[in-house]
Design a protein that fits this description.
Helix content: 10-25%
Structural class: alpha/beta
CATH superfamily of the largest domain: Spore Coat Polysaccharide Biosynthesis Protein SpsA, Chain A
Oligomer: single chain
Catalytic activity: alpha-D-glucosamine 1-phosphate + acetyl-CoA = N-acetyl-alpha-D-glucosamine 1-phosphate + CoA + H(+); N-acetyl-alpha-D-glucosamine 1-phosphate + UTP + H(+) = UDP-N-acetyl-alpha-D-glucosamine + diphosphate
Number of strands: 37
Number of helices: 7
GO biological process, one term: UDP-N-acetylglucosamine biosynthetic process
Family: In the C-terminal section; belongs to the transferase hexapeptide repeat family. In the N-terminal section; belongs to the N-acetylglucosamine-1-phosphate uridyltransferase family.
Number of domains: 2
Pfam families: GMPPB_C, NTP_transferase
Shape: globular
Largest sheet: 7 strands, mixed
Strand content: 25-35%
EC number: 2.3.1.157, 2.7.7.23
Length: 396
């Protein structure tokens, strides 16, 4: 069986992290989120993939190639224009046979759940998740084990089963996609295609997602996913640990990385290849440090994602933050991550202040950002790629 993975979008709510790469290639626990999904699917028995790509698709093609590194086949299919989920899935026609599973490139799912899906015998199966606020989702109405209706954000939901966007289909779905018309959102919705399938008296079932649903829609969702994945990590140390460095708990250290004397690291933490860490730094749990990263003297980092090639200069504090590639922190840069009044931190997303739902959140920093010495960055600040601060500047 093959898996069709929808990976064409930029992820505009993830800006500026997606200024030069597609959302699905953003790293979580030091691997692109798309690779985590591929790994789960392979473990479940999938041996072929169809990537539906668009925005900066060359990044995906360069990283995954034809799938040889994973001993699978990967077809890369270009989506001309992003016109909804049905439109995207329609591009898989001719690349799959009989039944296939559809996954979103930004929704992490376990191999167990994928395995349960591909074992089902119905004409189609929808993954659903029990939620406390079903009015905010598309929900299904059921009759026993069958789905009899799909309702988008109903005022009076018939169930608490929200559509999680993972499907099992047969090739019959392609004919229905071709009959699907534009929705009020000016998109071709796969739920409309599914409703036509249901109305044809086909056997459409559902599979309840029992585990945590990790839908990475906004930058801070990466921190939640990172924490979950790091807790599942099997640690390995391939670098050099100097005698007076301390590693506690599950800490992974990549090849060519040096952990200098006085470094104190509490897992779960992952550190990539060719990094220079310390001396005398403090790295706290749920931190992922990419490749070729320098963490200087007397730096403290907690619950953050630091991407490849970034330099965190000495005497810096960084917490609950996402840092892009090739950034440079001038000495003494401090990132605030907690409001004085204890309220949730709001972040400007697509020009609007959005409640992150988090009491602790630092900076969301694009690629190639430079901070001057002794810069102070306030909670929930978004810094565009290529921006910089002057020495002593306060950024809000």
């Amino acid at each position: 069986m093959k898996a069709v993975i929808l990976a064409a979008g930029e992820g505009t709510r993830m800006r500026p992290l997606t200024s030069s790469i597609p959302k699905v290639m953003l790293p979580v626990a030091n691997k692109p989120m798309l690779e985590h999904i591929v790994d789960s699917a392979i473990e479940a028995g999938i041996d072929g993939f169809v990537f539906i790509t668009g925005y900066h698709e060359e990044v995906i093609e360069q990283y995954f190639g034809n799938g040889d590194r994973w001993n699978v086949t990967i077809d890369h299919v270009h989506q001309e224009e992003q016109l909804g989920t049905a439109n995207a899935i329609g591009y898989a026609k001719g690349h799959v046979k009989e039944k296939f599973i559809v996954l979103n490139g930004d929704v992490l799912v376990s191999s167990d759940h994928i395995e349960h899906m591909i074992e089902r015998k119905e004409d189609a199966v929808i993954t659903v998740k029990r939620v406390d606020n079903p009015s905010d989702f598309g929900v299904i109405e059921t009759d026993g084990n069958k789905v009899i209706n799909i309702i988008e954000k109903p005022e009076f939901p018939p169930t608490d089963l929200a559509n999680a966007g993972i499907y099992l289909f047969s090739e019959a779905i392609f004919d229905l996609i071709e009959q699907t018309t534009l929705s009020p959102r000016e998109e071709y919705e796969i739920t409309d295609s599914l409703q036509m399938l249901i109305n044809s008296d086909a056997d459409v079932g559902y599979e309840i997602l029992e585990e945590e649903w990790i839908d990475i829609g906004r930058p801070w969702d990466m921190l939640d996913a990172n924490a979950v994945l790091l807790n599942q990590m099997e640690p390995s140390v391939k670098g050099v640990i100097e005698p007076n460095a301390t590693l506690i708990g599950d800490v992974s250290v990549g090849r060519g990385t040096l952990i200098r004397n006085g470094a104190y690291i509490i897992g779960p933490v992952i550190i990539g290849n060719d990094c220079d860490i310390g001396p005398n730094c403090f790295i706290r749990p749920s931190t992922a440090i990419g490749n070729d990263v320098h963490i200087g003297n007397a730096v403290e980092v907690k619950n953050s994602i630091i991407m490849d090639g970034t330099n965190i200069g000495h005497l810096t504090y960084l917490g609950d933050s996402i840092i892009g590639r090739k950034c440079n922190f001038g000495a003494g840069t401090k990132v605030a991550n907690l409001r004085h009044d204890g309220k949730n931190i709001k972040v400007k997303i697509k020009g609007k202040l959005t409640d992150s739902g988090r009491r602790k959140l630092g900076v969301i920093m694009g690629d190639d950002v430079h901070t001057g010495i002794n810069s102070s960055i306030n909670v929930g600040t978004v810094m565009e790629s290529g921006s910089y601060t002057r020495p002593g500047e306060v950024v809000r």
